Amino acid sequence: MGIEVLDSRFLDYRFTTADVVADNTSAARFVVGAPVPVEGIDLRLVGVVFEKNGQVVATAAGAASLGHPAAAVAWLVRRLATDGEGLTAGQVVLSGGLTAAVPVGPGDVVTATIDRLGSLELGCR
Q: Which residues form a coiled coil (predicted)?
């Protein structure tokens, strides 16, 4: 599991597909936790609680990522294959945000908790 840190140049994250490409998907940083086995877990149904400074600011389910988090990864693999490319060992692939973006600033602490998978915390400087 991971937390993606966005740095969009677009107010309120309103943009076109071309804007997203030009802005490098608003990606700035990400943090990932230790690998967690997911065998036997229906990732569509896992609940996500996102907190900012101890307050719940968003909730979601795994299905928020194209119906299943693996669907986004499968799309990427198929797309890369059309160019004769593929993923390699050690690459990190983010399957897409499950919640809407949450503004953060210096001093904020955010925590993502995913049912049966654990929690991940990020402090902002």
A: none
